[in-house]
């Protein structure tokens, strides 16, 4: 199987002879502080939950998400990771013409191709520092009848982010569906940027969230989607398998969304490290650094002294893995992405980058 | 959502005011000894695995299943519970005409109806004690061209079981696919009854297994299917989501399939309790008890003194839940099913049944 989502640590570990835990993985965008201790302790103290079927209605989990996202519990659908929801939503609305903001996470295009949907890419450009003007986007939308507009907000890999007000403008200017992937939204100010509480009032909005990145739980497979459109929601639910969320994921979810100490500590350190890393990376010779609202930073090797692939391979013996962005449509072989890890790891990354570049 | 798979303890708990853990659940067919302690301890001591993506190739998990089932690792597909595999296999081979051994678990029919497959039911009959003669079945198969034959072995809810030799005879007499659901096979002698090692040599066989029942892990959602037909296997895999098995399930699986002490203890106690319960239930007034190779026993209230539904409701205040089998096509409102719990619980069940019947 070919994997294109950050590092496959299992494969790298067997190839390079390091244990998985030794790698500093700057490529997978996962919060380096691990997950909520409250949630982990609950699992440890209640491990026998593995012997019980999950609640088929996931009532407590949905209550917890509803509080966290400030939207109605009835508007929530649950997925085994955000991936299952992307796939399920696209299959359900079965669009014939989609506008895909690009560069973008590869799963959207993969799912659109499965249903033979025509795809128009709306590119953020490096010469604009990957900033998208909402009015330009809206005039493109108005020119054509798209059934679906896909926006990753903050954008992975560029880091650009629309405000909630701008998203509302976009919603008002289309009769199609707008799917917003908010996988990285918690690394920025959700009051300004998150669209979750718009789902109760906008029937053409679907907001997707995952817990893999901010809550550092890619292992449990817990994603959630928010949608006020009852017909579409019921249709998605009818296509999902019964018990698609395991009991560990359901219990951890109930707890971690309200673990304020975990949330504030993660945000505080990562935002301050983001400022630090953006500044320091900008001092590297021949490297352009793009602003980001996510927990990752897109960089371009303007000097063309080395490709991103070569840079990545040069770093691996130091147990550092970065993301070569050549596979993103709209970027080239000189773009790489790093995420924000712990302060000491970020400093090690900078040290080795300085040596190579 | 309407659930028809044993008890929804969450719903019953909120309806009757008992905590979920207080119920003796004789309806869900789960091994009452919980799961492998080795597997649970591993999770407790390595809880940080939740912060790591699963191995997309699940190499160690497949090795462990391969040893356990005595078949090639390359012939394994993994599902988020057996349910995902039933659904995925049926969608993939897309049969137009299926022979469904009945009465049967409701999921097969549900999935067949989704693809508008014509269904012929081959009923085991109470007057034959639900025993199926392989030669009669084979002559039915020979009369018509079925794309698919579905057999649950041991049969849920009747408890009847084909031997591996009989399954091999069936395989040789059809050009269609044979899907064998071996969810309950570990409660009987797998050397005699299991078909897992036939998959390496028979291209029209798909064996499905789950870990929910024998390994008492419905909460982790781990199922696996065995199929030697490469084209079908690749097609199933391409429809499954990336990372469909969470890291807890993958790690527990690696360990529990080789936990010989858990396996032998479960088999020893449950088989001896099965004999005991079959004998004791047979002494109840007006109740017919059917032989079983599973961890459950089908009973019929011949006296018609009370329906299975009424019996179930009468037992709930004693915190006992049994399965009313009226919803199984081919059974009527006087059939109920009980599974084998711990010795003390089985005796409590008998005590209350004796009072009511």
Automatic annotation (TrEMBL), chains A, B:
Its cofactor is pyridoxal 5'-phosphate. Residues 22-353 form the Aminotransferase class I/classII large domain. SUPFAM superfamilies: PLP-dependent transferases. InterPro entries: Aminotransferase_I/II_large, PyrdxlP-dep_Trfase, PyrdxlP-dep_Trfase_major, PyrdxlP-dep_Trfase_small. It comes from the Bacteria. Keywords: Aminotransferase, Pyridoxal phosphate, Transferase. The keyword Transferase applies. GO terms for molecular function: pyridoxal phosphate binding; transaminase activity. Coiled coil: none annotated. This is Aminotransferase class I/II-fold pyridoxal phosphate-dependent enzyme. The lineage of its organism: Bacteria, Bacillati, Bacillota, Clostridia, Peptostreptococcales.
